[in-house]
Amino acid sequence: MNKDYLISTIEMDCPICNKVHSLEQRKRLTQSIVKDEIVDYEEVYYLCPLSDQEENEFVPAGLLDENLLKARDAYRQKKGLLTSSEIANIRSYYGLTQSDFSALLGWGDVTVTRYESKTIQDETYDNIMRMVYENPLFALECIDKHKDRFTSDKYTKIRKNIANKVEEVGNLYLKKQEINSLYVNFEEESEFNGYKKLDIEKVANVIGYFSQFVDNLYKVKLMKLLWYADAIFYGRHGRSMTGLVYKHMPLGALPIAYDEIIYLSTVKVIEEMVYDDISYRICPNKEVNISDFSLEELSVLETVATTFKNYKAKEIVEYMHREKAYTDTLPNQVIPYSLAKQLNELK
Ligand SMILES: [Zn+2]
After folding, report:
1. Which parts of the chain sit beneath pLDDT 50?
2. Hey, CA dihedral for 124, 126, 132, 133, is it positive or negative?
3. Domain residue spans in the chain?
């Protein structure tokens, strides 16, 4: 709590000694009460180094507003609400001004302006803004619904921006919805999801990791790598890495939504003919950001990738068939993570 540091010095009229001299602009971690809630935030203030009075610091009006904004944003973060800059980012994602964003949502002209400057949005409004960002199709619906709030030029321009986003990420959004709908019975933490709710971003990152570090990666092998990553992580930490739920299938453990998860944005799928059969090769689509993983996760991913790097699909399937998780479950049965604790050789 005693972090207090100098940002800059500034020559100005000092209200404490009523003359122009050099003042220190400083920053410190402080507390404030927002909506009955104590929050920590960084406050900027001015210090007069010449004064020997008790009151040797002050906050000019403009800075006071900034400090208040920071306190409110700290509250928002604590409550899981969008911060003022996150709201601004959603607007600029679609090229909207504050009043455009309000109009798009059918709200009063200055609602968004207030959210970005002083008022804290309630959860309903927060969810709507979030949805506009996550689902461009919803944004498109909104602008069509409130077309009369825009000039025709402006409407055309904004609609085009949104349509571009629909093309870019709309399919991905639908893919995520499909995956979530297949996991609707596994929303509670249990031994089926390894005491972790499905984390689609994590699944995408793990698949991206394997596509980058394992050559010649095909769909069947990828599914086993995912299971081993989750199983080993569970063995070490008592919960799965991704929250995927796996079933006992002829070719070993297979996650629910196996057909959908390979179409997340970290990889691209190339269909190839191998011996008259279509194979799905998994290739990296974008550089995986290693910092998206914890050290514990990386350690497990590396173990799995190096162990099975040179295994052919058939070999890894046979290897998995010998696992207790497989021999002790019936066809189509969900494999409980408790059985993943005893793995053949891997730990
Ligand atoms: Zn002074």
Report:
1. 1
2. negative
3. 4-68, 84-179, 186-341
